[in-house]
């Protein structure tokens, strides 16, 4: 082993027990534990959706990943699941019908790029940053103002056109009367 690789190896060996202790402490703080170990959630999700013949929402996907042999991995998992169902039932009763995924997010909380309770499994759809959203909203507002202004101009132009057509029709009538009084034929218009 060359000198640099040896130095990195020794450095990593010295930090390993400390990192293990930090990881152990962090895992002990988790209240919602899944039962998948290192297995990818996406793999299980695909299997369950294939079996069910439909796309599963987050609430439907929660029990298979947090129950083993009909028992919840922690009591907190059971409490959270019941809360999701209650939020969903309440939203239906109130008539606003939140989607199951929104009910899940309300109970579990939202973290950008990460579905809480599913480890590094299925990722939530990305949302635009607030800065880009603000820019888009401003552009939309500007476009709406411009659209309103153009509609007003179009309305004014249509009114002018109607007035000009009425004048021309009136002038045609006057011309017809003059020509008929003089027994002349009107000119052929092309």
What does this 3D model show about the protein?
The chain has 190 residues and is mainly alpha-helical. It folds into 2 domains: 31-126, no CATH class; 128-190. It is built from 6 helices and 2 strands. The chain has a two-stranded antiparallel ribbon with strand order 1-2. A hairpin with a 2-residue loop joins β1 (67-68) and β2. The longest helix is centred in the C-terminal third of the chain and has 52 residues, at 130-181. The protein starts with a helix and ends in a 9-residue tail after the last helix.
Keywords summarizing the entry:
about 190 residues; mainly alpha; coiled coil; 6 helices; about 0% strand; Probable_transposase_24
TL;DR of this structure?
By secondary structure, the protein is mainly α. Helix content is 67%, strand content 2%.
């Amino acid at each position: 082993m060359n000198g640099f690789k040896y130095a990195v190896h020794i450095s990593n060996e010295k930090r390993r027990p400390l990192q293990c202790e930090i990881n152990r402490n962090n895992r002990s703080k988790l209240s919602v534990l899944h039962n998948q170990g290192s297995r990818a959630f996406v793999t299980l999700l695909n299997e369950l959706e294939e079996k069910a013949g439909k796309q599963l929402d987050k609430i439907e996907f929660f029990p298979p990943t947090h129950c083993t042999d009909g028992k919840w991995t922690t009591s907190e998992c059971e409490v959270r699941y019941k809360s999701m169902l209650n939020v969903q039932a309440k939203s239906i009763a109130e008539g606003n019908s939140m989607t199951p995924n929104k009910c899940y997010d309300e109970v579990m909380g939202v973290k950008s790029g990460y579905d809480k309770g599913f480890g590094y499994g299925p990722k939530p759809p990305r949302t635009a940053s607030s800065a880009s959203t603000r820019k888009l909203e401003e552009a939309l507002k500007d476009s709406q103002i411009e659209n309103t202004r153009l509609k007003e101009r179009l309305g004014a132009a249509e009114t002018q056109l109607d007035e000009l057509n009425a004048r021309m029709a009136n002038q045609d009538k006057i011309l017809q009367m003059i020509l008929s009084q003089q027994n002349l034929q009107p000119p052929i218009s092309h």
